[in-house]
C-alpha cells in the first residue's frame, strides 16, 4: 500500500487538465462556492470554538462537582467526547483545506490510509452520538416509566458495559461506509491565473477520496447512514411520548422534590434529543433522496443547488454537536448551579480545604448514581464532467 503523496513530477501533458475559467472549475466541483467559503471562514470556526468550549466545560463540571457524577451524566460525557471529536475531524479538515489550498483537497491525508481513517473515525463519532442519544432516552424512559425495574438493574458495571457496546456498534456501522471513500486518486491541473477566482496558490495536484467502482458503495453508504437514523428517530419518539405522558401523572407515594428533580432531568433529555433530530433530519432526508437518485437517470436534486443544500445540512449537523451543553443549562436548574459551582473563582481553594479521605470515599460512592429517590499514489487523468459528487457526506 503506497502511503506517499506523489509530487508534480508525475504530471505530464497527457494527464493534466488546463482549467481556463472558474466556471469550468465549478463544473468539476473543484472550488468552494461563495456560500461555502463564507461558512468555512466565519460560521464553522465559531461552531467549532463554541462546541469545544461547551463540551469541555461540561466534562470539567462532571469531574469537579460530585453531585454531577451520575449514570445519566456518564452517558452524556461520552456524548460530549463524541461531539468534540466529530467537530474536530469534520470542521478541522475543511478549515485546513481552505487555509492551505483554497479549495477541497484531500492531499495531506496520507493517501488511501488517510481516506479510510478519516471516514472511519468521522462516522464512528457520528453514529456514537446517535446511539448514545437513543440509549439515554431508553434509560430515562425506564427510570420514569418503570422506576422499580430500573432501580434493580442499575449499576456502575452495567453503565460501563452498555457504553462500550454503544461504541462498538458505532464502529461496526462506520466500517460499512468506508467503501464509499476507499480509493485515493490524484488529478493534475494547471490554472489560468488571469481569472480572478483562480489563484496561483491553487495546487497542481488535487487528491480526492473516492468510492470503489460501481454504484453499490454509495448506495450502501446512504442505507447505512439513514436506516439507523430513522430507527432511532421512531424509537426516541416513542420514548419521549411515554416520558411526557408519565410526567403529567402525579404519584402520591413519591415526594414532590423527587418528582421535580426527575422531571427536570427527563425534560432536559427530551429537549436534547429533539434538538438532535431537528438538526440532523434535513441531512438524512437529503441522503434518502440521493439514494433514490442513484437508481435514476435524472437528477432529483439539481447540481446547481446541491452544494448550497449540502452546506446547509452540514451546518445543522455541526450545530447539533455544539449546542448540547447549552440545552442542559437552559432546561435544568441543577445543571446551571453545577456549572456555576464548577467554575466559581473559589472552587480550587474550597476543594483543597474540603478534600479528605472521607470526602473521597463519598465521591466514589456517588459515582454513577441516577437518583436515590427514584488507491495507490499513481497519477490518473483528470476527471470527466460527471465526476461523482462528494458534497453529500458530512
TrEMBL record:
Membrane topology annotation: Multi-pass membrane protein
Keyword Transmembrane helix annotated: yes
Bilayer-crossing regions: 38-62, 74-99, 119-138, 159-178, 226-245, 266-292
Residues annotated as domain G-protein coupled receptors family 1 profile: 54-328
Primary location class: membrane
A cellular component term, taken from the record's GO annotations: plasma membrane
Cellular location(s): Membrane
UniProt keyword list: G-protein coupled receptor, Membrane, Receptor, Transducer, Transmembrane, Transmembrane helix
GO MF, one example: G protein-coupled receptor activity
Transmembrane keyword on record: yes
SMART domains: 7TM_GPCR_Srsx (SM01381)
Gene3D superfamilies xref list: Rhodopsin 7-helix transmembrane proteins
Top-level taxon of the source organism: Eukaryota
InterPro entries reported for this sequence: GPCR_Rhodpsn (IPR000276), GPCR_Rhodpsn_7TM (IPR017452)
Similarity-based family: Belongs to the G-protein coupled receptor 1 family.
UniProt name for this protein: Neuromedin-U receptor 2-like
Amino acid at each position: 500500500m503506497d502511503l506517499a503523496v506523489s509530487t508534480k513530477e508525475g504530471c505530464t501533458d497527457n494527464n493534466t487538465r488546463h482549467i481556463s475559467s472558474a466556471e469550468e472549475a465549478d463544473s468539476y466541483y473543484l472550488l468552494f462556492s461563495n456560500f461555502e467559503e463564507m461558512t468555512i471562514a466565519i460560521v464553522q470556526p465559531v461552531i467549532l470554538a463554541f462546541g469545544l468550549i461547551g463540551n469541555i466545560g461540561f466534562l470539567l463540571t462532571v469531574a469537579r462537582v460530585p453531585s454531577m457524577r451520575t449514570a445519566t451524566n456518564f452517558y452524556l460525557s461520552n456524548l460530549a467526547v463524541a461531539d468534540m471529536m466529530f467537530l474536530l475531524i469534520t470542521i478541522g479538515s475543511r478549515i485546513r483545506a481552505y487555509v492551505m489550498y483554497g479549495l477541497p483537497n484531500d492531499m495531506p491525508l496520507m493517501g488511501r490510509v488517510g481516506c479510510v481513517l478519516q471516514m472511519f473515525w468521522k462516522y464512528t463519532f457520528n453514529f456514537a452520538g446517535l446511539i448514545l442519544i437513543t440509549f439515554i432516552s431508553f434509560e430515562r424512559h425506564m427510570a420514569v416509566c418503570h422506576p422499580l425495574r430500573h432501580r434493580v438493574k442499575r449499576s456502575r458495571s452495567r453503565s460501563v458495559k452498555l457504553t462500550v457496546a454503544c461504541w462498538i456498534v458505532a464502529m461496526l456501522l462506520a466500517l460499512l461506509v468506508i467503501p464509499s471513500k476507499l480509493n485515493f486518486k490524484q488529478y493534475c491541473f494547471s490554472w489560468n491565473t488571469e481569472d480572478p477566482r483562480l489563484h496561483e496558490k491553487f495546487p497542481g495536484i488535487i487528491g480526492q477520496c473516492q468510492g470503489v467502482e460501481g454504484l453499490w458503495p454509495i448506495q450502501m453508504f446512504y442505507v447505512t447512514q439513514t436506516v439507523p437514523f430513522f430507527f432511532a428517530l421512531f424509537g426516541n419518539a416513542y420514548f419521549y411520548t411515554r416520558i411526557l405522558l408519565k410526567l403529567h401523572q402525579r404519584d402520591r407515594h413519591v415526594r414532590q422534590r423527587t418528582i421535580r428533580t426527575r422531571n427536570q432531568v427527563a425534560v432536559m433529555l427530551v429537549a436534547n434529543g429533539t434538538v438532535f433530530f431537528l438538526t440532523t433530519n434535513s441531512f438524512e432526508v437529503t441522503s434518502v433522496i440521493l439514494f433514490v437518485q442513484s437508481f435514476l437517470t435524472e437528477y432529483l436534486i439539481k447540481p446547481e443547488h446541491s452544494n448550497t443544500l449540502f452546506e446547509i445540512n452540514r451546518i445543522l449537523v455541526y450545530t447539533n454537536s455544539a449546542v448540547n451543553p447549552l440545552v442542559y443549562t437552559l432546561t435544568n436548574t441543577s445543571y446551571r448551579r453545577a456549572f456555576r459551582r464548577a467554575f466559581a473563582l473559589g472552587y480550587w481553594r474550597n476543594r483543597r480545604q474540603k478534600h479528605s479521605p472521607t470526602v473521597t470515599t463519598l465521591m466514589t460512592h456517588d459515582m454513577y448514581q441516577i437518583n436515590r429517590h427514584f488507491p495507490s499514489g499513481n497519477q490518473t487523468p483528470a476527471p470527466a464532467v460527471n465526476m461523482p459528487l462528494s458534497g453529500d457526506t458530512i
